[in-house]
Each structure stands twice: as C-alpha cells, then as structure tokens.
Design a protein that fits this description.
heterodimer, A: 114 residues, mainly beta, four-stranded antiparallel beta sheet, 11 strands, 0% helix, B: 112 residues, six-stranded mixed beta sheet, five-stranded antiparallel beta sheet
C-alpha cells in the first residue's frame, strides 16, 4: 500500500543535541512538507520541497534543516538552535500543479526534549 | 497573510448533528480544506471547496462562501468514532508550493 512512513514515532532528546526525523513516501509525489503541531494550535509549516534537490523555508524554519536528495525522502533535522523543539512533527506529501492537491500525512513523530 | 478562526471545542450527542464554523482572511484564496485528526494520529482529508456552495460526502458536508470568508463542516448522524479534531485549512493563491495555512482545530467530543 502507498503511504508515508515517519520514524521514530517517539524521540527523546537532551538539550544541545541535534536529532533527525525520517520521512519516506512511496506515493510518487513530487512535493513534500514538514509541519509542527503544538497542543491547541494549528499545523505550522517548517519546510517544503517541490522537487528533488530543492526546498524552501516555511513560516517557522529557524532551528531546523532539511535535505531532498531523493524523491522519496525528506528528512528533518531539529538542531540545538531550535529553542523549543518539544512538539508533534508531521510530514506530508502531495502532487504538484493546480487543483485540490490533497496532502497525505504520515503518522507523526513526537519529540520531547528532556 | 492569513488568519483562520474556528471554535476550540464542541460537544454533541451520538446521532445528532454538529456544525463546525471556520472564518478566514486571506490575500489570495485558492481553496479550503477540512481534515479530521484523531488524537496522536495523522490528519486525514475530508473535503475540499474552491467554489461557493455545498459539497456532500455521505454523513459529512462542507459549505463555502468566498464573499463572506466563511466555511462550515456539517457532521450528521454523529457516531462515537467521530470524536476527533477537525482542521480547517486555506490555500493561498499567491503562496508557492501549495502552501496551506491551518486553523487551530476544533475538538469534537461525541457523548452517548
């Protein structure tokens, strides 16, 4: 079955450590996204990529980095520069172009900073 | 920029109807989406409106009025499994990358 796989599901990090969240999709989608979700708040866009080897900052990119070396993969690194990294992170993908372009989401990764 | 408002929480009884409102302000409207999200899980797509009017999908319907910057999601014949958060999201025509802006979500609690 096609879908998006995020790992790990739960991650604990000490302050000052970088961590990388994995996102893999087999939907043949060109576009991929990373969102952050905090309790009681909407999803906020961190980074997005429309094609391989290209990505753009979203609304809250500071303290995060991404890469898009393969169409299927869009890993997110949460760096020590991110001051409040504890959150639920969602990866999504979609086709490009006009129209509905519905987002398909992964199951999420919950990061807790100790 | 965009601003999206929806109620924080609503409670309804099994078998009843609930209407979740969403108001938005955007510089270049290019579609409105509703997603359902159960606690700790991925959001799943429910509906898409780009033209004014009502879109019906089984027990769920979504309405859009572009002139009023207003949408609602109507859930009929509520079931316990409908207890979830419902996210309203608006796409900006002037934003690259199919960028969606999400509201804070409305948590719906269905009681027996």
């Amino acid at each position: 079955d096609g879908g998006i796989t995020q790992s790990p599901k739960y991650l604990f990090r000490k302050e000052g450590q970088n961590v990388t969240l994995s996102c893999e999709q087999n939907l043949n989608h060109d576009a991929m996204y990373w969102y952050r979700q905090d309790p009681g708040q909407g999803l906020r866009l961190i980074y997005y990529s429309q094609i391989v080897n290209d990505f753009q900052k979203g609304d809250i990119a500071e303290g995060y980095s991404v890469s898009r070396e393969k169409k299927e993969s869009f890993p997110l690194t949460v760096t020590s520069a991110q001051k409040n990294p504890t959150a639920f992170y969602l990866c999504a993908s979609s086709i490009r172009g006009s129209g509905a372009n519905v987002l398909t989401f992964g199951a999420g990764s919950r990061l807790t900073v100790l | 920029g965009q601003n999206i408002d929806q109620p924080t929480e609503m409670t309804a009884t099994e078998g009843a109807i609930v209407q979740i409102n969403c108001t938005y302000q955007t510089s270049g409207f290019n579609g409105l989406f509703w997603y359902q999200q159960h606690a700790g899980e991925a959001p799943t797509f429910l509906s898409y409106n780009v033209l004014d009017g009502l879109e019906e999908k089984g027990r769920f319907s979504s309405f859009l009025s572009r002139s009023k910057g207003y949408s609602y999601l109507l859930l009929k014949e509520l079931q316990m499994k409908d207890s979830a958060s419902y996210l309203c999201a608006v796409r900006d025509a002037q934003a690259a990358g199919n960028k969606l802006t999400f509201g804070g979500g409305t948590r719906v609690l269905v009681k027996p």
